[in-house]
Amino acid sequence: MLDVSRLVSRIGRGPLTGVDRVERAYLVALLARTTPLFLLVRSPVGYLVLPRSAGPLILGWLDAPQTVPRPGLPFGLARDLSLPRQARIALRARRVRSCLPWRLTAAARATMPQGGVYLNVGHSNLSHRTLSQLHSVPGLRLAVMVHDTIPLDHPEYCRDEAVASFRKGFRAVADHADVILCPSQAAARATAGWCVKCGRSPEIRAVPLGLDPVKPALAEIPATIDLRRPYFLALGTIEPRKNHALLLDIWEAMAAELPAEAMPQLVIVGRRGWRNEDVFARLDALRTPASAIREFGDLGDGAVAALLLGARALLMPSFAEGYGLPVAEAARAGTPVLCNDLPVFREVLGDYAVYADVGDMYSWKTTIIEFAGRVRAPGSGHFFEAETGWTDHFKVVLSIV
What is the pLDDT of residues 255-314, one digit of tens each? Predict the structure, then answer.
Protein backbone atom coordinates (compact mmCIF):
# COMPACT_ATOMS: atom_id res chain seq x y z
CA MET A 1 0.00 0.00 0.00
CA LEU A 2 1.74 3.12 -1.28
CA ASP A 3 0.66 6.47 0.16
CA VAL A 4 0.26 8.86 -2.77
CA SER A 5 -1.37 11.71 -0.83
CA ARG A 6 1.48 14.05 -1.71
CA LEU A 7 1.39 13.30 -5.44
CA VAL A 8 -2.34 13.91 -5.66
CA SER A 9 -1.90 17.21 -3.81
CA ARG A 10 0.71 18.28 -6.39
CA ILE A 11 -1.48 17.83 -9.50
CA GLY A 12 -1.56 21.09 -11.45
CA ARG A 13 0.89 22.89 -9.18
CA GLY A 14 3.91 23.09 -11.41
CA PRO A 15 7.16 21.08 -11.65
CA LEU A 16 7.70 18.41 -9.03
CA THR A 17 10.10 18.95 -6.14
CA GLY A 18 12.73 16.42 -5.12
CA VAL A 19 10.46 14.68 -2.59
CA ASP A 20 7.64 14.63 -5.16
CA ARG A 21 9.95 12.92 -7.64
CA VAL A 22 10.80 10.20 -5.16
CA GLU A 23 7.14 9.40 -4.53
CA ARG A 24 6.54 9.39 -8.27
CA ALA A 25 9.48 7.01 -8.81
CA TYR A 26 8.01 4.63 -6.21
CA LEU A 27 4.63 4.67 -7.93
CA VAL A 28 6.20 3.95 -11.33
CA ALA A 29 8.37 1.14 -9.94
CA LEU A 30 5.55 -0.56 -8.03
CA LEU A 31 3.20 -0.35 -11.01
CA ALA A 32 5.83 -2.25 -13.01
CA ARG A 33 5.77 -5.16 -10.54
CA THR A 34 3.19 -7.94 -10.29
CA THR A 35 2.88 -7.63 -6.52
CA PRO A 36 -0.68 -6.70 -5.45
CA LEU A 37 -0.73 -2.91 -5.09
CA PHE A 38 -3.10 -0.49 -3.41
CA LEU A 39 -2.81 3.29 -3.12
CA LEU A 40 -3.81 5.38 -0.11
CA VAL A 41 -4.93 8.99 -0.42
CA ARG A 42 -5.83 11.30 2.45
CA SER A 43 -8.95 13.32 1.69
CA PRO A 44 -10.60 16.16 3.62
CA VAL A 45 -13.14 13.72 5.05
CA GLY A 46 -11.03 10.60 5.55
CA TYR A 47 -9.11 8.14 3.40
CA LEU A 48 -9.47 6.60 -0.04
CA VAL A 49 -8.06 3.13 -0.77
CA LEU A 50 -7.49 2.87 -4.51
CA PRO A 51 -6.68 -0.03 -6.84
CA ARG A 52 -3.55 -0.35 -8.97
CA SER A 53 -5.50 0.99 -11.95
CA ALA A 54 -5.64 4.44 -10.32
CA GLY A 55 -1.83 4.74 -10.54
CA PRO A 56 -1.57 5.46 -14.29
CA LEU A 57 -4.37 8.02 -13.95
CA ILE A 58 -2.46 9.92 -11.27
CA LEU A 59 0.74 9.85 -13.33
CA GLY A 60 -1.15 11.10 -16.38
CA TRP A 61 -2.76 13.94 -14.44
CA LEU A 62 0.64 15.00 -13.08
CA ASP A 63 1.97 15.30 -16.63
CA ALA A 64 -1.23 16.80 -18.09
CA PRO A 65 -3.33 18.47 -15.36
CA GLN A 66 -5.84 19.67 -17.95
CA THR A 67 -7.01 16.07 -18.37
CA VAL A 68 -8.35 15.84 -14.80
CA PRO A 69 -12.11 15.33 -15.29
CA ARG A 70 -14.40 18.09 -14.14
CA PRO A 71 -16.84 16.70 -11.56
CA GLY A 72 -20.57 16.79 -12.07
CA LEU A 73 -23.17 18.01 -9.64
CA PRO A 74 -23.08 18.85 -6.79
CA PHE A 75 -19.28 19.28 -6.76
CA GLY A 76 -19.24 21.04 -10.12
CA LEU A 77 -21.00 24.05 -8.60
CA ALA A 78 -18.03 24.88 -6.37
CA ARG A 79 -16.07 27.94 -7.48
CA ASP A 80 -12.81 27.10 -5.70
CA LEU A 81 -12.48 23.57 -7.03
CA SER A 82 -8.72 23.07 -7.22
CA LEU A 83 -7.17 20.43 -9.47
CA PRO A 84 -6.10 18.25 -6.51
CA ARG A 85 -9.67 18.33 -5.21
CA GLN A 86 -11.02 17.51 -8.67
CA ALA A 87 -8.60 14.60 -8.81
CA ARG A 88 -9.70 13.27 -5.42
CA ILE A 89 -13.35 13.46 -6.50
CA ALA A 90 -12.55 11.54 -9.69
CA LEU A 91 -10.53 8.96 -7.76
CA ARG A 92 -13.35 8.45 -5.29
CA ALA A 93 -15.41 6.83 -8.03
CA ARG A 94 -12.63 4.26 -8.52
CA ARG A 95 -11.99 3.48 -4.87
CA VAL A 96 -11.77 -0.04 -3.48
CA ARG A 97 -13.11 1.43 -0.26
CA SER A 98 -13.20 4.68 1.67
CA CYS A 99 -13.45 5.41 5.35
CA LEU A 100 -13.76 8.16 7.91
CA PRO A 101 -10.54 9.23 9.69
CA TRP A 102 -11.02 6.89 12.67
CA ARG A 103 -11.89 3.83 10.54
CA LEU A 104 -8.58 3.33 8.72
CA THR A 105 -7.65 0.18 10.66
CA ALA A 106 -10.75 -1.63 9.49
CA ALA A 107 -10.31 -0.42 5.89
CA ALA A 108 -6.67 -1.53 5.80
CA ARG A 109 -7.47 -4.94 7.32
CA ALA A 110 -10.22 -5.50 4.78
CA THR A 111 -7.91 -4.49 1.94
CA MET A 112 -4.83 -6.42 3.05
CA PRO A 113 -6.04 -9.32 5.21
CA GLN A 114 -2.71 -11.17 4.91
CA GLY A 115 -0.62 -8.17 5.90
CA GLY A 116 1.95 -6.55 3.65
CA VAL A 117 3.77 -3.22 3.62
CA TYR A 118 2.60 0.36 3.94
CA LEU A 119 5.05 2.69 2.18
CA ASN A 120 5.16 6.44 2.77
CA VAL A 121 8.00 8.31 1.07
CA GLY A 122 6.43 11.76 0.66
CA HIS A 123 6.69 13.41 4.11
CA SER A 124 2.89 13.79 4.05
CA ASN A 125 0.04 12.06 5.88
CA LEU A 126 2.47 11.31 8.71
CA SER A 127 0.15 11.74 11.66
CA HIS A 128 -0.28 9.74 14.83
CA ARG A 129 -3.85 8.96 13.80
CA THR A 130 -2.80 7.54 10.42
CA LEU A 131 0.27 5.60 11.51
CA SER A 132 -1.12 4.28 14.78
CA GLN A 133 -4.15 2.83 13.00
CA LEU A 134 -1.99 1.20 10.34
CA HIS A 135 0.43 -0.07 12.97
CA SER A 136 -2.45 -1.93 14.64
CA VAL A 137 -3.19 -3.96 11.48
CA PRO A 138 -1.86 -7.51 12.07
CA GLY A 139 1.06 -8.36 9.78
CA LEU A 140 1.28 -4.91 8.20
CA ARG A 141 4.79 -3.42 8.25
CA LEU A 142 5.26 0.35 8.09
CA ALA A 143 8.16 1.71 6.04
CA VAL A 144 8.59 5.49 5.99
CA MET A 145 11.22 7.58 4.23
CA VAL A 146 12.68 10.49 6.18
CA HIS A 147 14.47 12.60 3.58
CA ASP A 148 16.09 14.87 6.16
CA THR A 149 15.64 16.27 9.65
CA ILE A 150 16.38 19.87 8.71
CA PRO A 151 13.29 21.32 10.48
CA LEU A 152 14.59 19.78 13.72
CA ASP A 153 18.30 20.47 13.13
CA HIS A 154 17.92 23.96 11.72
CA PRO A 155 14.50 25.40 12.65
CA GLU A 156 15.84 28.88 11.93
CA TYR A 157 15.61 28.10 8.20
CA CYS A 158 11.98 26.96 8.31
CA ARG A 159 8.55 28.39 8.94
CA ASP A 160 7.41 27.99 12.52
CA GLU A 161 4.32 26.04 11.49
CA ALA A 162 6.44 23.73 9.32
CA VAL A 163 8.75 22.97 12.24
CA ALA A 164 5.81 22.17 14.52
CA SER A 165 4.19 19.97 11.86
CA PHE A 166 7.42 18.13 11.10
CA ARG A 167 8.09 17.54 14.80
CA LYS A 168 4.67 15.91 15.25
CA GLY A 169 5.10 13.85 12.10
CA PHE A 170 8.58 12.69 13.05
CA ARG A 171 7.37 11.65 16.50
CA ALA A 172 4.60 9.59 14.88
CA VAL A 173 7.16 7.92 12.61
CA ALA A 174 9.51 7.18 15.51
CA ASP A 175 6.63 5.71 17.52
CA HIS A 176 5.07 3.51 14.84
CA ALA A 177 7.39 2.79 11.87
CA ASP A 178 9.00 -0.63 11.54
CA VAL A 179 11.73 0.69 9.25
CA ILE A 180 12.85 4.20 8.33
CA LEU A 181 14.47 4.73 4.94
CA CYS A 182 16.88 7.62 4.39
CA PRO A 183 18.47 8.84 1.13
CA SER A 184 21.96 9.21 2.63
CA GLN A 185 24.13 8.11 5.52
CA ALA A 186 24.16 11.70 6.74
CA ALA A 187 20.36 11.78 6.89
CA ALA A 188 20.31 8.35 8.56
CA ARG A 189 22.68 9.50 11.31
CA ALA A 190 20.59 12.59 12.01
CA THR A 191 17.38 10.54 11.98
CA ALA A 192 18.84 8.00 14.40
CA GLY A 193 19.82 10.76 16.80
CA TRP A 194 16.31 12.21 16.86
CA CYS A 195 14.73 8.77 17.25
CA VAL A 196 16.83 8.24 20.39
CA LYS A 197 15.46 11.51 21.74
CA CYS A 198 11.93 10.27 20.98
CA GLY A 199 12.54 7.13 23.04
CA ARG A 200 12.13 4.54 20.26
CA SER A 201 14.56 3.50 17.53
CA PRO A 202 13.10 1.66 14.53
CA GLU A 203 15.41 0.02 12.02
CA ILE A 204 17.04 2.78 9.94
CA ARG A 205 18.57 2.13 6.51
CA ALA A 206 20.34 4.53 4.15
CA VAL A 207 19.40 3.79 0.52
CA PRO A 208 20.78 6.25 -2.09
CA LEU A 209 18.22 7.59 -4.52
CA GLY A 210 18.17 7.03 -8.25
CA LEU A 211 18.04 9.65 -10.98
CA ASP A 212 15.22 9.93 -13.48
CA PRO A 213 16.19 10.02 -17.15
CA VAL A 214 15.44 13.42 -18.65
CA LYS A 215 15.85 14.44 -22.29
CA PRO A 216 17.38 17.94 -22.58
CA ALA A 217 15.13 20.40 -24.41
CA LEU A 218 17.28 23.24 -25.73
CA ALA A 219 14.27 24.91 -27.36
CA GLU A 220 12.63 25.34 -23.94
CA ILE A 221 15.45 27.47 -22.49
CA PRO A 222 14.13 31.03 -21.95
CA ALA A 223 15.27 33.52 -24.58
CA THR A 224 16.39 35.97 -21.87
CA ILE A 225 19.39 33.72 -21.14
CA ASP A 226 22.28 34.52 -23.45
CA LEU A 227 23.74 31.10 -24.23
CA ARG A 228 26.74 32.73 -25.89
CA ARG A 229 27.91 34.07 -22.53
CA PRO A 230 29.14 31.98 -19.60
CA TYR A 231 26.42 31.22 -17.10
CA PHE A 232 26.10 29.46 -13.75
CA LEU A 233 23.06 27.64 -12.47
CA ALA A 234 21.44 27.59 -9.01
CA LEU A 235 18.57 25.12 -8.55
CA GLY A 236 16.13 24.91 -5.66
CA THR A 237 13.47 26.78 -3.73
CA ILE A 238 14.58 30.28 -2.80
CA GLU A 239 14.60 29.84 0.97
CA PRO A 240 17.17 30.79 3.65
CA ARG A 241 18.69 27.30 3.79
CA LYS A 242 19.70 27.44 0.13
CA ASN A 243 21.79 30.58 0.79
CA HIS A 244 21.05 32.50 -2.40
CA ALA A 245 22.19 35.60 -0.53
CA LEU A 246 25.81 34.48 -0.89
CA LEU A 247 25.45 34.23 -4.66
CA LEU A 248 23.89 37.70 -4.87
CA ASP A 249 26.78 39.07 -2.78
CA ILE A 250 29.31 37.43 -5.10
CA TRP A 251 27.67 38.79 -8.25
CA GLU A 252 27.52 42.24 -6.67
CA ALA A 253 31.23 42.06 -5.85
CA MET A 254 32.12 40.85 -9.34
CA ALA A 255 30.10 43.66 -10.91
CA ALA A 256 32.31 46.14 -9.04
CA GLU A 257 35.49 44.45 -10.28
CA LEU A 258 34.81 43.17 -13.79
CA PRO A 259 33.82 45.01 -16.97
CA ALA A 260 30.21 44.40 -18.02
CA GLU A 261 31.22 42.26 -20.98
CA ALA A 262 33.19 39.92 -18.70
CA MET A 263 30.37 39.35 -16.21
CA PRO A 264 29.03 35.78 -16.19
CA GLN A 265 25.31 35.19 -15.85
CA LEU A 266 23.66 33.69 -12.79
CA VAL A 267 20.53 31.69 -13.62
CA ILE A 268 18.37 30.98 -10.56
CA VAL A 269 15.66 28.36 -11.05
CA GLY A 270 13.26 27.80 -8.17
CA ARG A 271 10.08 29.06 -6.60
CA ARG A 272 10.18 31.72 -3.94
CA GLY A 273 9.85 30.19 -0.53
CA TRP A 274 9.64 31.69 2.95
CA ARG A 275 11.44 33.93 5.43
CA ASN A 276 13.61 35.38 2.68
CA GLU A 277 12.19 38.84 2.10
CA ASP A 278 15.61 40.52 1.82
CA VAL A 279 16.65 38.16 -0.97
CA PHE A 280 13.30 38.62 -2.73
CA ALA A 281 13.72 42.39 -2.59
CA ARG A 282 17.22 42.15 -4.04
CA LEU A 283 16.00 39.91 -6.85
CA ASP A 284 13.14 42.29 -7.63
CA ALA A 285 15.63 45.16 -7.90
CA LEU A 286 17.68 43.14 -10.40
CA ARG A 287 14.84 42.63 -12.87
CA THR A 288 16.39 44.77 -15.58
CA PRO A 289 17.55 43.86 -19.10
CA ALA A 290 21.12 44.77 -18.16
CA SER A 291 21.23 42.51 -15.11
CA ALA A 292 23.51 39.47 -15.17
CA ILE A 293 21.09 37.62 -12.90
CA ARG A 294 18.01 35.84 -14.22
CA GLU A 295 15.33 34.31 -11.98
CA PHE A 296 12.81 31.69 -13.11
CA GLY A 297 10.19 30.35 -10.75
CA ASP A 298 9.28 27.31 -12.83
CA LEU A 299 11.09 25.62 -15.70
CA GLY A 300 10.36 22.21 -17.16
CA ASP A 301 12.68 19.27 -16.61
CA GLY A 302 13.86 19.38 -20.23
CA ALA A 303 14.87 23.03 -19.97
CA VAL A 304 16.72 22.43 -16.69
CA ALA A 305 18.54 19.43 -18.17
CA ALA A 306 19.60 21.53 -21.17
CA LEU A 307 20.77 24.36 -18.91
CA LEU A 308 22.86 21.92 -16.89
CA LEU A 309 24.64 20.73 -20.01
CA GLY A 310 25.80 24.24 -20.90
CA ALA A 311 26.44 25.70 -17.45
CA ARG A 312 29.99 26.47 -16.35
CA ALA A 313 28.99 25.01 -12.98
CA LEU A 314 26.10 24.27 -10.67
CA LEU A 315 26.34 26.39 -7.53
CA MET A 316 25.03 24.90 -4.25
CA PRO A 317 25.93 27.05 -1.23
CA SER A 318 23.28 25.36 0.94
CA PHE A 319 23.66 25.44 4.70
CA ALA A 320 22.04 21.99 5.02
CA GLU A 321 20.77 19.21 2.75
CA GLY A 322 19.39 15.71 3.18
CA TYR A 323 20.65 14.51 -0.20
CA GLY A 324 20.78 17.22 -2.85
CA LEU A 325 19.43 15.77 -6.09
CA PRO A 326 20.61 18.77 -8.18
CA VAL A 327 24.28 18.04 -7.47
CA ALA A 328 23.90 14.41 -8.57
CA GLU A 329 21.99 15.46 -11.68
CA ALA A 330 24.65 18.02 -12.53
CA ALA A 331 27.45 15.53 -12.05
CA ARG A 332 25.65 12.96 -14.21
CA ALA A 333 25.55 15.59 -16.97
CA GLY A 334 29.28 16.24 -16.59
CA THR A 335 28.65 19.72 -15.21
CA PRO A 336 31.14 20.96 -12.58
CA VAL A 337 29.74 21.49 -9.10
CA LEU A 338 30.81 24.15 -6.61
CA CYS A 339 29.17 23.53 -3.26
CA ASN A 340 29.39 24.00 0.46
CA ASP A 341 31.54 21.44 2.25
CA LEU A 342 28.69 19.38 3.69
CA PRO A 343 29.12 15.70 4.65
CA VAL A 344 26.18 14.69 2.46
CA PHE A 345 27.75 16.32 -0.60
CA ARG A 346 31.01 14.49 0.12
CA GLU A 347 28.99 11.27 0.40
CA VAL A 348 27.15 11.79 -2.89
CA LEU A 349 29.91 13.39 -5.01
CA GLY A 350 33.22 12.30 -3.47
CA ASP A 351 36.08 14.03 -5.27
CA TYR A 352 33.92 15.19 -8.18
CA ALA A 353 32.88 18.54 -6.72
CA VAL A 354 34.83 21.61 -5.73
CA TYR A 355 34.10 22.31 -2.06
CA ALA A 356 34.28 25.73 -0.46
CA ASP A 357 33.11 26.90 2.93
CA VAL A 358 30.22 29.34 2.58
CA GLY A 359 31.91 31.60 5.11
CA ASP A 360 34.73 32.16 2.61
CA MET A 361 33.19 34.38 -0.04
CA TYR A 362 36.61 35.10 -1.57
CA SER A 363 37.14 31.42 -2.42
CA TRP A 364 33.69 31.19 -3.97
CA LYS A 365 34.22 34.32 -6.04
CA THR A 366 37.67 33.35 -7.33
CA THR A 367 36.50 29.83 -8.19
CA ILE A 368 33.50 31.18 -10.09
CA ILE A 369 35.70 33.58 -12.03
CA GLU A 370 38.06 30.71 -12.82
CA PHE A 371 35.19 28.51 -14.05
CA ALA A 372 33.82 31.41 -16.12
CA GLY A 373 37.12 31.66 -17.97
CA ARG A 374 37.17 28.02 -18.97
CA VAL A 375 35.87 26.98 -22.39
CA ARG A 376 33.51 24.07 -21.89
CA ALA A 377 31.52 22.23 -24.52
CA PRO A 378 28.01 21.28 -23.41
CA GLY A 379 28.05 18.05 -21.45
CA SER A 380 31.84 17.73 -21.54
CA GLY A 381 34.02 16.79 -18.62
CA HIS A 382 34.17 13.85 -16.26
CA PHE A 383 30.83 12.09 -16.17
CA PHE A 384 29.83 11.12 -12.68
CA GLU A 385 27.79 7.94 -12.43
CA ALA A 386 25.30 7.81 -9.55
CA GLU A 387 26.27 5.23 -6.96
CA THR A 388 22.97 3.51 -7.47
CA GLY A 389 20.04 3.83 -9.85
CA TRP A 390 16.38 3.36 -9.12
CA THR A 391 16.63 -0.33 -10.06
CA ASP A 392 19.26 -0.95 -7.41
CA HIS A 393 17.42 1.32 -4.97
CA PHE A 394 14.27 -0.79 -5.17
CA LYS A 395 16.18 -4.05 -4.96
CA VAL A 396 17.51 -2.91 -1.61
CA VAL A 397 14.26 -1.37 -0.36
CA LEU A 398 12.06 -4.33 -1.27
CA SER A 399 14.50 -6.70 0.40
CA ILE A 400 14.27 -4.65 3.60
CA VAL A 401 10.53 -4.15 3.81
Answer: 999 999 999 999 999 999 999 999 999 999 998 888 999 999 989 999 999 999 999 999
Spatial contact of 110 and 97, defined as CB atoms under 8 Å apart? yes
Distance CA 334, CA 311 (A): 10
Classify residue 54: in a domain, yes or no: yes
Which residues have CB under 8 Å from 316's CB, separation 6+? 234, 235, 236, 324, 326, 327, 337, 338, 339, 340, 345
**247, 318 contact by CB (below 8 A):** no
| pLDDT single digits (tens) 129-178 | 999 999 999 999 999 999 999 999 999 999 999 999 999 999 999 999 99
83 and 134 inside one domain? yes
CA dist 265 to 280, 283, 320, Å? 18, 14, 25
- Residues 82-102: b if buried by 16+ CB within 10 A, e if exposed: ebbbbbbbbbbeebeebbeee
Residue 344: give its domain's CATH number. 3.40.50.2000
Report residue 315: phi and psi, to 5°. -110, 125
Same domain? 354 vs 396: no
How far apart are the C-alpha atoms of 106 and 129, rounded to whole Å? 13
Say if residues 290 and 207 touch (Cβ distance below 8 Å). no
Longest Cα–Cα distance of the chain, Å, equals 71
Domain membership of residue 170 as a residue range? 2-210+390-400
Distance (Å, whole) CA 8 – CA 30: 17
Are residues 108 and 247 both part of a single domain?
Answer: no
- Is the pTM higher than 0.90? The answer reads yes
Spatial distance between the Cα atoms of 309 and 330, rounded to a whole number of angstroms? 8
